[in-house]
Amino acid sequence: MHFLTKPLASMRKLAIVTTHPIQYYAPIFQLLAQRGNISIKVFYTWSQAADGPKNDPGFGRDVNWDIPLLNGYEYEFVENIAAEPGSHHAAGIVNPGLIDAISQWQPSALLVIGWAYRSHLAVLKHFNDKIPVLFRGDSTLLDQKPGLKSMLRLLYLRWVYSHVNYALYPGTNTKAYFEKYGLTDKQLVFAPHAVDNQRFAASRTNEAIALRQSLGIVEDEILVLFAGKLESKKSPDLLLEAFMKLNKAGVHLLIAGNGELETALKERAKAHPRIHFMGFQNQSAMPVLYQACNLFCLPSAGPNETWGLAINEAMACGKAILASNKTGCAIDLVRPGHNGEIFEAGNLQALYNSLAALCTSAEILSTLGKASLGIIANYNFSEIAEAIEATVCAGH
User: Fold this and answer.
1) Is 308 left (phi over 0), alpha (psi -120 to 50) or beta?
2) pLDDT tens across 201-252, in order?
3) What distance in Å separates the CA atoms of residue 221 and residue 176, rounded to the nearest whole number?
4) Where residue 55 falls among pLDDT bands split at 50, 70, 90?
5) H or E segment and range at residue 119
């Protein structure tokens, strides 16, 4: 057990503003509270209840995560009066009482996760120059195109980030983004994106074997996995076409998820016996899928595949990775020839070539997967918590 290192009266208080409880942030909040180096309170701006499913437009269904997201830390659901509540548009987060709620708690620093909501931007503006303002985002320049729109965006985003004292960036592409929009090296703090590595690495071997057997995949055959929303930006259709072009005996493809492309994908693949589909799988089931596969592929073309946390999850399960160069984390997590390959987004032939090179043997993929474990070990919740604590407690 971690005991408090400072008396409560002198402990720095960090208010955290984010839209809703999700499986990638709740463990960080829990860890910060457990470590006891700072006091935190999370202000949720979208959700109005602790329990119950939330509609996810990308999956085309309601989602209710099956791991605890509200245990072990202080939080408050702030009333959201948006006509169409949601995190998919700026007007979906409108909280007239948010600034007062934060002020009443009297924080010594503020962390805002994502600015592109009406209330979040208002909070950045209000607390700027009052207390240190930290910002967490993962935007990149990967989809940016030159032109007037880009110039106007430059001016606007420089204004937005002028309200931020410190930005927590997860990787190389986001650091370049923050630098372009006016933040200096002294303002930039590396805080990697992470998943619960231990939960994904915990052996689910028997379940993984059972899953492979249910799909008719024998021990020495190769299973390529795509898991995520079946939407255009993730390009599962490109992977399907490359796999069908490969058409190699002993190599299977599993597409797990739901979304707008689901019907078309199933129709295209209906005559192919080595292509399998599964619907949305909740968090407790995901380690089984990753552990059952030999190669995980995220072929995203974007826009806005800012990181790709599914790659973290697959790497924590010790899997080889094939990712497009429009996947935000690829430059940091995928090392060609060491733990996988990176291909040009949207290029069918490039994806086919990478698939063909990787799917030569399960043994080679196993070696690449072991390398993934070494890389992902440093992308963990403790690294994020320490980065936040250091920034809040350094007297800034």
Assistant:
1) left
2) 999 999 999 999 999 999 999 999 999 999 999 999 999 999 999 999 999 9
3) 41
4) low
5) helix 118-127
**Residue 47 φ/ψ region, left for φ over 0, alpha for ψ in the -120 to 50 degree band, beta for the rest:** beta
Sheet holding 251-256, edge to edge: 275-278, 251-256, 222-227, 295-298, 320-324, 340-343
Using a 10 angstrom Cβ sphere, with 0-12 exposed, 13-18 middle and 19 or more buried, the burial of residue 248 is middle
Q: Can you tell me the distance from the alpha carbon of 379 to that of 372, in angstroms, rounded to the nearest whole number? A: 11
Q: What's the rounded Cα separation, in Å, for the pair 196 and 266? A: 32
Are the C-beta atoms of 122 and 97 separated by less than 8 Å? no
- Record the tokens describing residue 351, joined without a space: 């994806």
Q: What is the pLDDT of residues 86-111, one digit of tens each?
A: 988 999 999 999 999 999 999 999 99
| Angle CA 365–367–371, to nearest 5 | 110
The token duo for 15 is 């208010």
Cα R_g (the chain), whole angstroms: 22
> In this structure, are residues 166 and 396 in contact, taking their beta carbons and an 8 Å threshold?
yes
Q: What is d(CA 68, CA 46) in angstroms, rounded to the nearest whole number?
A: 18
Can you tell me whether residue 336 is helix, strand or coil? strand
pTM here is 0.90
